[in-house]
Amino acid sequence: MNKDGLASFLLGLGVGIGIGLLFAPTSGEETRGLLKGKADEGKEYLKRRGSELRDSASDIIERGKEVIGRQKDTLAEAVEAGKQAYRETVSEPGSPASQMSR
Q1: pLDDT tens, 7-31?
Q2: What is the CA radius of gyration of the chain?
Q3: How crowded is the C-beta side of 46, counted as CA atoms within 13 Å?
Q4: How far apart are CA 3 and CA 66, in angstroms?
Q5: What secondary structure, in 3-state letters, does the chain show?
Q6: Contact status, residue 20 vs residue 33, Cβ threshold 8 Å
Q7: pLDDT(102) > 70
Q8: Torsion of CA 75, 77, 81, 83, to 10 degrees
Q9: Alpha carbon of 34 to those of 9, 39, 76, 90: distances in Å?
Q10: In this structure, what is the dihedral angle of CA atoms 67, 68, 74, 80, given to the nearest 10 degrees?
Q11: Half-sphere exposure of 95 toward its Cβ, with a 13 Å CA cutoff?
Q12: Roughly what angle, to the nearest 10 degrees, separates helices 28-91 and 3-23?
């Protein structure tokens, strides 16, 4: 859920509570109990969504670390292959690089 969705949820919750208060044929004590229950439901919903978002963020971060690790390994292998190719070229008799080093 994005910020707009969360804002819409909270707005809807507030409007619903307000309309409920206006049209509720209950006593003040019952209304307070209802409001407390709805507020607790909203709080639990927000805790659950927050936990889900943290879990999602953790998963994304972990996948990013894995990708970076693989890219780092690939780059290290490419650099090593380049060094090896250079060494082989330099050590070949008659190669321009080997003649320059003499």
Answers
A1: 788 888 888 877 777 776 667 777 7
A2: 32
A3: 13
A4: 28
A5: CCHHHHHHHHHHHHHHHHHHHHHCCCCHHHHHHHHHHHHHHHHHHHHHHHHHHHHHHHHHHHHHHHHHHHHHHHHHHHHHHHHHHHHHHHHCCCCHHHHHCC
A6: no
A7: no
A8: 70
A9: 18, 9, 63, 83
A10: -170
A11: 12
A12: 170
Give residues with Cβ within 8 angstroms of 13, minimum separation 6.
Answer: 38, 42
Span 37-68, pLDDT tens digits: 888 888 888 888 888 888 888 899 999 999 99
Residues 49 and 6: beta-carbon distance below 8 Å: yes
User: pTM of the entire structure?
Assistant: 0.43
For the chain, the residue count is: 102
